[in-house]
């Protein structure tokens, strides 16, 4: 079976959409399917990473005028052109395919309808925004209030909740065989960190005389501040890296995590790591508030309003309670989401 992923990454989109698609792509390959990607070349794209993972990439036609997002949640700008133009480009550059997986906030019903009218294929829509879709399956791996009322106008089969969280197999392995814990807090705010949470956190950490733990900050591959942030590493208990080759293991051995909401939530829950989260995108605000109300996490607020003082207060709270970190409610994420999705697609061999 041939499967094509339509997904982008950029300085505005971030890396999360591509990363979760790569998890599903690997699972499909493990069942013998032919998988490729279709992406727009954009500033900060991850086409190189997709190819590094062994997948062919159809390079779609770049827009002549790159449209910068005007505000948080300006999803049309993510696509840089109309859905109609993007669908026509995809159709012209794609060979026969039996499944298309779409993971893009700038693509929705109009794009899918155009594809359905022109290609004999099925569509899986990965979404978080409760929008209309013209697809066969809708995947929303998040935990929402009134979750099963979402996408109510869509006739597609719905795969809803963290049961379907797309996590790399390493998370499942570490959940079953966890490593010994070390005195460490790990922080990661996504690939781009557009609201500069790393800088705020590091500024706070260096202003505190003593912390009873080491702080490891993963700045992200698309973070333009990384080189400037390395200077904070002069303080002995702080380590800074753009990425970690075995991030899963480093997360699993940490006693606490600080980071962005969204996709990373399910990674932390899978490894049962208590965490403080920040909403760094418009679509994360409701989710973050809901998780906090359910006492699953400590919610520090929206990235547009957080400051180094917010992080200073949180680090001091952790330092004060380090020997008895307050427990949060347990949310079980088993790491088998990709297998369930492939099964729902009817592609288990």
Which terms would index this structure?
single chain, 349 residues, alpha/beta, Rossmann fold, 7-stranded parallel beta sheet, 13 strands, 19% strand
Strand-helix topology:
Layout: E1 2-7, H1 16-30, E2 34-39, H2 47-52, E3 56-59, H3 75-79, H4 83-93, E4 99-103, H5 109-118, E5 122-126, E6 137-140, E7 157-160, H6 169-176, E8 182-188, H7 197-207, E9 214-218, H8 226-229, E10 238-241, H9 247-252, E11 254-260, H10 263-270, E12 275-279, H11 285-293, E13 298-302, H12 308-320, H13 337-344
Helix pairs in contact: 1-13, 4-5, 7-12
Provide an overview of this structure.
With 349 residues, this protein is of the alpha/beta class. Strand 12, helix 11 and strand 13 (298-302) form a beta-alpha-beta unit. The mean pLDDT is 94. It has a 7-stranded parallel beta sheet. A 6-stranded parallel beta sheet has the order 10-9-8-11-12-13, sandwiched between helices. It contains 13 helices and 13 strands. The relative contact order is 0.13. The chain has 2 domains: 2-167 and 335-344, Rossmann fold, CATH 3.40.50; 170-324, 3-Layer(aba) Sandwich (Rossmann fold), CATH 3.40.50.2000.
């Amino acid at each position: 079976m041939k499967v094509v992923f339509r997904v982008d990454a950029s300085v505005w989109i971030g890396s999360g959409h591509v990363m979760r698609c790569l998890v599903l792509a690997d699972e499909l390959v493990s069942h013998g399917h032919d998988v490729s990607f279709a992406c727009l070349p954009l500033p900060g794209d991850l086409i190189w990473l997709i190819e590094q993972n062994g997948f062919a990439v159809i390079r779609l036609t770049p827009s002549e005028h790159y449209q910068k997002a005007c505000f948080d949640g300006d999803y049309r700008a993510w696509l840089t052109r109309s859905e109609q133009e993007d669908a026509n480009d995809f159709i012209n550059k794609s060979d026969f395919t039996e499944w298309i997986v779409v993971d893009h906030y700038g693509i929705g019903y109009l794009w899918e309808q155009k594809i359905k009218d022109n290609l004999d294929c099925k569509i899986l829509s990965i979404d978080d925004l409760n929008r209309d879709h013209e697809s066969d399956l809708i995947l929303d791996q998040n935990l929402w209030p009134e979750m099963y009322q979402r996408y109510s106008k869509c006739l597609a089969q719905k795969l809803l909740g963290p049961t379907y969280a797309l996590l790399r197999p390493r998370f499942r392995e570490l959940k079953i065989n966890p490593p010994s814990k070390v005195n460490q807090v790990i922080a990661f705010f996504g690939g781009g960190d557009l609201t500069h949470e790393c800088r705020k956190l590091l500024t706070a950490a260096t202003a505190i005389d003593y912390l009873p733990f080491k702080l490891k900050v993963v700045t992200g591959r698309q973070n333009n501040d990384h080189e400037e942030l390395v200077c904070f590493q002069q303080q002995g208990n702080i380590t800074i890296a753009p990425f970690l080759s075995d991030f899963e293991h480093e997360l699993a051995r940490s006693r606490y995590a600080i980071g962005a909401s969204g996709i990373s939530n399910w990674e932390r829950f899978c490894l049962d790591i208590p965490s403080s989260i920040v909403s760094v995108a418009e679509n994360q605000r409701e989710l973050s508030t809901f998780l906090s109300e359910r006492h699953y996490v400590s919610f520090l607020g929206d990235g547009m309003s957080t400051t180094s003082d917010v992080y200073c207060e949180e680090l001091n709270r952790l330092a004060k309670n380090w020997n008895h970190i307050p427990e949060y409610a347990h949310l079980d994420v088993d790491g088998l989401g990709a297998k369930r999705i492939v099964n729902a697609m009817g592609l288990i061999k």
